[in-house]
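lol ok so funny story. i was supposed to be doing the assay writeup but got distracted and ended up predicting the structure for this chain instead. priorities right. anyway since i did it might as well share w the group, maybe its usefull for someone
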Amino acid sequence: MLSSAFNMWEVSKDMRNSLLGRSHSRIFLGEEKSLYYAVTLDMRELLTRHFLFRNLDREVIDRITALGVRRRLEPNQVLFLKGDPGDALFGVLSGRIRICTSDAQGKEIMLNIMDPGEVFGEIALLDGRPRTAEASAMTKTELFQVNRRDFVELMRTEHQLTVHLLEMVCDRVRSTSELVEDSAFLKLPARLAKRLLSLAKYQDEISPDDAPRGIKISQSELGQLLGSSRESINKHLQQWRKKNWISLSRGNVTIEQPDELQQLIYEDGE
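and the output, tada:
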């Protein structure tokens, strides 16, 4: 049920506005030079923009930043494997990270895609237990890494940080619960529509040269996220294209009528 897991850590609207400054009525997914690929954050900016860290005192943000180190990954390079020690918290400064797991037969299931501004690894950071999934780079990626030992020591003196981290974990649990509910009660078209809208939630900005921006994701990857086949995903996308709800081109999806997709989700959930 967790095969469609998606996460609520998003680049804030203020940050996106400051980077792009213009808006567009349509939502774009899959542009090769996507917003998420183009955005590069520094460590302090990531923390001050993240919705759970940004309300921390400046001194606390500075202390976390001082603990962090940069880590660079090449495309397809593994960050950690399932079962590895949970010894660090990560934030994506640029690039993309895929979170996946596999069953006993070796079938891979993608759980999530982490983009700039997103933070992951907080559960293992708290309990120190082994990683429950694998993380690898989808493109050239730069990460912000804080080691567990240093972070836990900081938490002993900064109680405000402890509360924020607990809020982060609670939000993750709520997101997972919503996912399980969706998997149990929503049909594939509604889950696909919900996933696309989630991925594209804040992708309504374009660059000054009017080039569409978004995230690059293949139909196979959408299928992995939703626990379905590429053929099934393509079937529904083509149906929506004929209704002019979306536009399709090679490696791109443009959501032309978000309200129609939202209505589909609503009707399925009734």
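The longest helix spans residues 159-185. The first strand starts at residue 27 and ends at 29.
back to the writeup now i swear
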